[in-house]
Amino acid sequence: xxxxxxxxxxxxxxxxFLIVAFLVAPLSLDETMQxxxxxxxxxxxxxxxxxxxxxxxxxxINNFDFAAAFDTVMTGEVKSDIEPYKITxxxxxxxxxxxxxxxxxxxxxxxxxxxxLYESSLTGAKGILMYDVNGSIGPNVWGRDxxxxxIYSDRFEPFCxxxxxxxxxxxxxxxxxxxxxxxxxxxxxxxx
Length: 192
Description:
Elements: H1 7-43, H2 45-62, H3 66-77, E1 78-81, E2 105-107, E3 112-117, E4 127-132, E5 146-152, E6 155-158, H4 165-171, H5 181-188
Antiparallel strand pairs: 1-2, 2-3, 3-4, 4-5, 5-6
Helix pairs in contact: 2-3
């Protein structure tokens, strides 16, 4: 009759638990970080509403054109220029010219912001803005910690706002670019 577990049996169980822990821990850490980044993105929405009002005020009070007003307001929102760094899509590819930026700036909350203003646009957008919620700290991936707005004269609009939820979810996956996560996380309040 056996009164307990042998050292070998306990060792085998211990090794199994360690293997399971090493397999599960990275997944839960990644999900926790993703939830934190999505939450940060949701929190900055009111800041961008205020920035929009400030741009409008600069246009009205100082008789600036949109580009000058936007540059003036953004200068007040950042503490320093920083070196550009590589940002990729969720699917691992590198964005084309439209979603590459060279004027990276660090905000007072240590996020990174960069933007491009268009000289003219068929869509009515005045430009686009990239916001990296945790600055140059990785992963630096659209839809993970990097999000974006289309800039209009009367509003900032998250990328893919006019796309269906199905299109947004598909793009906000490992096979998509991650650009649509900018709106998807705001609408659903969660990530896939």
